[in-house]
Each structure stands twice: as structure tokens, then as C-alpha cells.
Amino acid sequence: MSILSCTVSMDISPLSWYSVLLPAGSLILFFFLWRRQRRTRLPLPPGPPAWPIVGNLFQLGKRPHESLYALSLQYGPLMALRLGIKTTVVASSPAMAKDLLKTHDHLLAGRTVIEAAKSLSHHKSSLAWGEYGPYWRNLRRISTVELFSPKRLEALQHLRRNQVFQTTRLIFEDWGKFVDIAHTVFCTSLNLLGNMIFSTDVFDPHNPASAELKDIVWEILKLGGIPNSVDFFPFLRFLDPQGVSRGTAKHLKAMYEFSDAFIQKRLATTSQRIERNEVEKDFLDVLLDSRSEDFTFVGIRNLIVELFLAGTETSTTTIEWGMAEFIRNPIKLNRVRQELDEVVGCKRRVEESDLDRLPYLHAAVKEIFRLHPAGPLLVPRKAGSSFEIGGFLIPKDSEVMVNVWGIGRDPSIWKNPLEFMPERFLEGESSKIEYGGQNFELIPFGAGRRICPGLPLASRMIHLVLASLLHSFEWILPDGMSCEEMDMSDEFAGLALKKATGLQAIPVPRLPHDIY
Length: 516
Description:
Order of helices and strands: HHHEEHEHHHEHHHHHHHHEEEEHHEEEE
Distance between the termini: 115 Å
Strand content: 5-15%
Radius of gyration: 28 Å
Helix content: 40-55%
Shape: globular
Low-confidence stretches: 1-26, 29-34
Number of strands: 12
């Protein structure tokens, strides 16, 4: 009987397994399909209702950083809008910025390329706009190691010193006359980059050809700042209704000719330099040595042009805002001057080696980045694939922005957020905040894979130029204007937030004349 029972049991055991596995497998499959369906049905982040065709474009107005911040107070720190035919997601809190730019950084390594950047296919070999991949990583590596690394910046310290000293000397020679701060700093930045890349000045205020170069750079930056209908409605590209692409292509062609002239001259003189044992290489030499089947003369030219475009505007804008805030706040100005006089004294000009001993200046620069980020919405990212964040769907190919201007004005993060208070970065938890991409309360240069590679150079230049201008001169506003009457309104120009009214002031030397 026991044998028979055993035999029967063995005969029916497969059926028993099937009877168990079939329902279990069905449940697992059902759960998998349900989860997958649920993921595809995740809602977009909340946002304002969109109009047909135009979406939410009219709600942005001329000051999108402010409009988006106001909308975030209503719809939350992560919201979705439709700008033309594009889905745009905007983060307005440090937590959401961290989730996007750190946790999901690998999914947001791409760019939404504005139409102006597509002129002459420049964006395909671009640090700012290029697609994330081997070519882009090679560009980033070359730029980081050979131009922006601590070792390279230290070796080129004399170039920054010479350019800043030359600027203060020119101001001194014309003191008593109005100085256009943005123009002066812009020309200084052009020559600094010219010396770092080509080992020569590229701007001479007395040379009309140099003035033309400055004007071309300004025109390209201005065209890139025009709200372009093609960016929201790509099917209008063939019409180019605002002439942005045509204008940008025209001026970029002139910049390419400028770059090509230096490249051809260097190629023609390389053998002579080797014969004379002139082995010290500048950035152009490094680029030419890095040529390959992928990285051709066209790529070298494009990278050089982009460095001139990107390396001048942001630093110029930040320094102008910094000078305006100090002139407008005499008590803060006196404090930074007292620090400069204690560390540097009044018998020499500021050196880069002095900067580490100027904590109030460092705090002031952080405060300028907080109040006046040059790129208030950063450069937009593009979602490489769909993903979930906070229970919401970020669709593939959607544009992703971070409103760093809004984060900098958030009263839940900053006490008295509208006031210029460098002291906030000298005490408490805020004293630990830096702008290198790890503290998401302050990310003027972005974060993650796409953080601005020029951050180390920009930081040094902003500190050195601000310290030099404040230490070397008193600054008087024109026409008896009081500091309270200064126009501190801003103007959104494309990706940059500029001072609406350019800062002009009259310098009066503070140091003995023989020092200049």
C-alpha cells in the first residue's frame, strides 16, 4: 500500500507543480505589466494650463527667470510647461536641482541646442552644446587639463597679473573720465584669453581692427540672446523669421577667419620655433598636437571661437554686478577696502597670491553669484530617456532647466534674500557653502558632467579684477548721482542676466601714482 501511494504521488507531482507555478507566474506577469503600465502613466510635474499652439510662452514674458520663480510658488519646485511644441521641466529648489543634476545626471548629459548655436554646425564640436559622447569628453579633457587645471592656471598666473595691471594702468592714465566697467573688463578678458591661447594680445584699444573683433563677439552674444521663435517652433527653421541664424552665421564666419589666421601663422612658424628651441607651448600648440582623424582643424577652430565667446561674457557680467553692488553699498565697500588695505597695503597693487587671505572678498563674490547669476536658468539639459522623479515623469527629449536665480532669492533658504550681505557666508552653515557644484543652494556654474569647465579660471579672474579695481580706485557715480539712485534692474538676454543700464563711474586713484 505504501509503495502504491508513493507511485501515485510521484505520478501527480508534475501537475501539482504546474498548479502552483501557473497562478504564481500569472501573478508575477500581471504585476510586471501593471508596474510597467503604471510607469508609462506617471503624470508630468504640475504646471500652468497651456494655450493651444503657443503653450505657456506668453506667461514667460521678457523676464522668464522671475516668471518661472513666481509660477514655482504656485505649482511647486518641480513643474512642467509647454513652450511651443517643447515640453520643459523647471526645478526651483536645491533638492530638485540635486536630484536632476546629481542623481539623474547620466540621463541629462545631453543639451537642448538653441538655433543660434546650430549656425555652421558649430554645436557639433562644441563644449557647451555638443552631444555627450567620446568626442565631447575628449574636448573636455583637453580643455580641463591644458587650460583650466590648477597646474596650468598656476603656470599662467603671470598672464593674469600682466593683464590686470595693464587695465589699472590704462584707467589711471585716463582717470577723471568715465569708465565703462563692462567694456573695460570685457577687453581685459579678451586679451587674457588671447595670451593663454595664442601667446599675444588680441585687443588694442587704439587699433580699429581690434575694436572690430570686440564688436563681432558682442554681436554673436547679442544674437544668441534674442528669444528666437525657431527654438519653440522648429518647423520655422527654413524661414529664419528673425534672421538669427543668418546673422550668427555671418559673424561666426568672421570669428572663424580670425582663428584660422592664428592657426595658419602658427603652422608656418612651428619649425622655426623648434630650431630656436622655443619649446614652451601655449594652448594652440597643444590643440595642434592633439589633431586626429576626429579632431581636425575645424574642431580646433570651433573650440577656440567658443572659448572666446563663453570666456568673456560671464566674467564681465559678474564683475560689473559686483562693482555695482559695492558702489551701492558703501558700508560693504569700506569693509572690503579695509581688508584689502590690511592684507595688501597701499604701497603696491593686489597680487593673486593675496586672494587666499581675503575672506570678506570671497564671501562677497559668493553673494554676487547668489544675487546675480550670469546664467539664471543655466544652459538647458535634455533628457536622454524618460525617467521618474518624485512620482512624476520626465519625458524623453524634454528640456530641463534649473532656476538658480529663483533658488538664490528663496526666503526659505536665505535670510533677507534681496539684500547684498556677504556676511552671510562668513558665519553659520552658510560659511560652508561653495560654488563648485556640490552645494545646490549655490550653483552658478552648474553641476555634474556639464558643469562649466572654465570655473577655475573665471573664479580667479573675478576675484583678482574686483580686488584690483576696488583697491586701486575710488569710484564716483556720474552727474552727482547718489548710490541710492543707481539703476539695479537686470535684463534677460538669452542665457545671461545682464545689468540693464551699464555701469559707468569716474575713478580716483587711491594708491601713490608711481605704483600704477
